[in-house]
Sequence to fold (264 residues):
Amino acid sequence: MYRNILLGIILGLTVLLLILIFLLGNQWYYESQGDEQFRSAKYDDAAGSFIKSYGEAKFLGQGRLLYKIGLAYQNNRDFDRSRDYYFELVRLYPDSPYSRLAAIRIEECYKSETSLDKTLLPTSYAAGSVEVARQKYVRAYQNLSRLLLANRSGVTPELEAAYQAYKIFHVEYKRQLALALDKFRSEHPDFVWPPPGAETGPDPVSVDATAPSSPVSRKDDGGRREPELKLSIPEPPRVESKPSDIERELSGDRRVAPTGAPGP
Fold:
């Protein structure tokens, strides 16, 4: 009797192992191949292997693989493509721990970009800071929305914490955008908005870039009350159903390469 039970357990484990190999075998193979190529400093080959592994990933590891693809391109000094994959990781898997690492890598890519003119580099880095702040805002917004939909018993500590995070990042996102735009205008005084001939509309950002990051009014040394931080910016963009260039490449459709870089 015990022998039959033991045989049944062994048979079940064998079947489970075969299923895992069938579902994840190619993913693991290409990823291990990419890891070996990465250790050998063959970064372009490693990126190709990681892309193949991502194409096989259906259940787990997608965020990790996108991060490895971006890291391989970053080490190969292909900063444009590296940023594309990091941005894709943050967009598709904002709650992944690799998404937080990607935000740091995005800033590194902007700092390491040597092909830009020195006068444009600060502006590019400011744009990276805006993107990092935007992703924090999106995550806080999504978390707040999730809790609001699930909350049926009034305000909870978790809901209150999510709301406070949303407010902080909401203000910081707008502030970073205002600072980046202000720097861009200082570096490019000939820039005109809106372009000649275009319909007039509100400035994309209306803010004093030197204002404090807190939205609460405060008094200055003269007893006067400083104006509140007033901003006008759209909510997080909706994710369109149309696949991005990177998604086409990862799915095997190489007719269009990621923005700013040739196909692999």
